[in-house]
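go over my protein:
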Amino acid sequence: MNSSYADPSRAEASAVSLERLRRLTLRRATATYTHWVERSVGWGTLIWMVFWLVFYAVAASQVVIFNVKPAPNGLLPIISSLFVAAVVAYFVLTRRTPPVILNRQDLYRVGLAPVTPARVLAWEFAYSRGIGFFIGALIGLIWWLIGFAFFRLEPIYAPVALGLWFVAVLDWGWLQYTGWKQIWVLPALLLVGVAGDLLFAIGGSSALLNSNPLGLILPAAAAILGSVWSRASLTSTYPPLFATHSLILSQLRAMNLTMVMVQRPPDPDVRRRLVQTLRSGSPALRPTRFLPIPRAAGPLGAIAWRVALTLYRRSILEQLGVVFQLAVLIAASTNTIEGVVGKLLLMLALSLAIPRLLGPVFGNLPVDTITRTLGRILPGVAIIAVLGALALLISSFVPTISSNVIVTSILHSLIALVALEKLSTRFKTPPTSRDVALLSAFIAVLPEVTLGILGVKGSLLEVQLGLLLLTIWQPFL
């Protein structure tokens, strides 16, 4: 994405055309969103909701019970200073993708225009800075109320300080992405801020603790310097992988928007492959890990192989996360919380751990429902069986752990796995969809809830086994 700016007259004409195109696009988008809000919500309803939101927020801030004594804040400056410096450094120095992108349409319409990248990305930077400052100011306002109520602080400049820090993180993140040589200035500024907080109370986080306006000097300096240098980095060409990253991030944002609009998560395999491509830095989409294809395994073996391949191609961290969640689920069952709270916690744990054991949702396969169900759950059953066997082996050496409780937990996981497979296939949603995951978890704990209501004891394992077999062999899903 290189551009030539040799002819000043052509460059100026292109800049004027770009501004006009951007203005027309924003006007059309504003009219579209205004019409959508009017048709879907209504401006009267929206104004009414905002009014009562502000009313209740003001009323809540007036009934806060303040501490009689000021909270001890001897360590508060040190903790806040190190925390702000660590968070800013982490979000900037670990940046591998652009914080500002062009969507697919703008990438082809204006990305190749004979104007400087700074002019093309001017609106995107201004919009992102405005959103970042607003979010930071909102968080700062919340901290102002919390600090005044519970720590007897008066950080009246906290909204401005956090807004400036959010803007600085965006601009310095862009500089880190482009490989700017003077990126070392940011760690130096953060060290100066820590020293200023500890010695003179005018460093990077002092505006979060007191009402001294000098605490805005360092956040403002970081934001202004980052803004100037980010514009200077766009005077000639775009970063090398900016077009590729923009296309991938645009698709991910479109998937997120679709998920919000239709309340249904996107295909996890497509999303995972896009994220993997985004992190690898190359547009290669071919998977790098394979499993040998089973010979003469039939439809059941083919489906199980496809699910196992999906689980195997996930990152090491994701695989370890699945094992850890299942281990915590089985271990937590040895010290369960009785009552409604215990069942709700168990449902939550099941809804978080079990969806990761299923692969993609298949279409209309030319097989019966039992073959499809057994094929999809076999890899997950193998993982649960291995962890359950280890838990039973450990329980044989620890007298306080009951083997019946571990078997009950294993059956919870198996029932939730089978129910999730049936429901996700029936509703054609990914297993990670929160509604079907919670519904399958509720089915898994249903025997305990029912027996508890009826007052029946000693028949839980039999009822769980019956429900498991009924869920697998019922022909309707």
Notes: The chain has two domains: 8-239, 298-473.
